[in-house]
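Worked Example 4.2. Consider the chain below.
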Amino acid sequence: MTARLPVTRALAALLEHTTGRPCGVGEHPRVQQKSGWDTAPVPYMILDSLPAEFAGPPLWDWHADAAWAYQITSVGERADQVEWLADRVRAGVVGRTDGGWAQDLAVPEARVIDRELTYDAGGEPSVSAAGVIVSYVQRVTITVTSA
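Applying the procedure from the previous section yields the following structure tokens:
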């Protein structure tokens, strides 16, 4: 069975690379400032793990393949910020060129065999004491098999 943590780290790195924005794994991302580490300014992403599914060849190793599900929440102050970021997330994770993936998703000791965008909710504003925050939720499934 393929471990989840290498897939999570590879996906977070892919998101940061393709969007140019910080991505926190399960929390608000932090960035290095001159005075030390601080919370990232908007827009940014939060990557959360969701329940997974397992499959494999019949009568052999039922856990040979794992479909790891994730939620990517783009956060900003305006709808155009999160739509821009969500467009870049979509293009980076499931974008294709010439019959292949536009971006490589390299996972140590595993081979990515499928990527799927399963949910794309659009921007949703909320008001808090800190002001207006707009979030855009996307869910993806990354299917891997043992290398």
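The first strand starts at residue 23 and ends at 25. Residues 122 and 136 are 5 Å apart (CA to CA). Compare this with Example 4.1 before moving on.
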